[in-house]
Amino acid sequence: MLTKPLADAIRTAEQIITSAPHVSGERDLAEGYDYLAGSIRGALQMAWAYERDHPYFVRSTGPYTKMGLDNPDTLYFHAWLRDDAEYVVTGVRGSTADLSFQILDGDYSPVDVPGSLAAFDDRELEIGADGSYTLRLAPAPKAAMLVVREVFSDWSTERPGTLRIARADRVGSAPPPVTLDRVTKRYGVAGKILISRLRTFLAFAERFYLGLPVNTLTTPRSTPGGLSTQFSSVGHYDLDDSQAMVVTVPASDAPYQGIQLGSMWYVSLDYVNHQTSLTRDQARIDPDGMMRFVISERDPGVANWLERTGHRRGYVQLRWQRLSRPLTAEDGPRVDIIAVDDLAEQLPYFEPISAGEWRARIAARQAATAERMLG
User: What is the pLDDT of residues 224-235, one digit of tens each?
Assistant: First the structure.
């Protein structure tokens, strides 16, 4: 049967989900199977987009194909490359906070983070008055994938640009017609991608997060496997319903600064219908220039509440992008564990918001996400 390699991989993937070390109940399993469905979709998409002679950009992640603690503020695109070919990327710059490019020498694996052959943002491009630009990628040893990130700070006002890639010597030509042999190989590739995807990011979280002391965050550091212009601070939390983790961090002058929560599956929590992430533009900044984020299950009644959505355990990540200087400990977060009932007394500048204001914040997220994901 032609689809057998993928069917076998799905059975193996189900075993990976059900045997994951953090699974302790029905909700963990339900979220795991939901994650599996998105991973199957993502693996099929990556396998069918494995076209290096007539490449095109595909969405690497989205609300229903999550992986790798995906940033809710980012549209991710990727295209496959040959290391002996020249490619031309054309586009029109949108109004987002950041647009960056990264050439990788491979894909993530359970033991390796792919090498970054080049990483830069649109400040290195010549952009016309109409926002148009052209980027030429010369042949480069080991070049395997081009990743593009378009990052939003203000979901409601910023707009994405356009993006296209072509192999320089194949413009105007067409790929060969589909064959049974080619489709058979792609089903096999999809199965391999699926298994690697699941194993890789569970191992990635174990390697870079779970070894840290719980309810702490690291000093800002260059993101492993990420951009040279991006720093991050990471950690994992374990809170009961009476506790809040208060993250205090200076509002940076970097064009993009954000914080998000993730589940133990190492994917973002529901950022469409819940406030599980915030950027500097979305957050309330206190008069002392600090942002104080409250991570809790119970509603603390403040604008900067990050909803746990029933996840007693999870991941926290802060990102700064388009930096012009390395960050120091003074730029990073401080963590305090405070009883939810004591927040009004313990938080300086405590300013409650009404239920109506909160509903308006969620409605704005829903509308902005729907519009952005059509871009």
Answer: 655 667 899 999
Q: Reduced to 3 states, what is the DSSP secondary structure of residue 193? A: helix
The token duo for 59 is 């969405």
Strand partners, 137: 87
In this structure, what DSSP letter does residue 268 have? B
Question: Where in the chain are all domains bearing CATH 2.60.120.1600?
Answer: 207-373
Phi, psi of 26 (to 5 degrees): -65, -35
pLDDT tens per residue across span 17-71: 999 999 999 999 999 999 999 999 999 999 999 999 999 999 989 999 999 999 9
**CATH number assigned to the domain covering 207-373:** 2.60.120.1600
What CA–CA distance (Å, rounded) separates 371 from 375? 7
- In 242-330, DSSP assigns E strands to 243-250, 256-262, 277-279, 290-296, 305-307, 313-321
pTM: predicted TM-score of the whole model, two decimal places:
0.95
Do 275 and 307 touch, CB atoms closer than 8 A?
Answer: yes
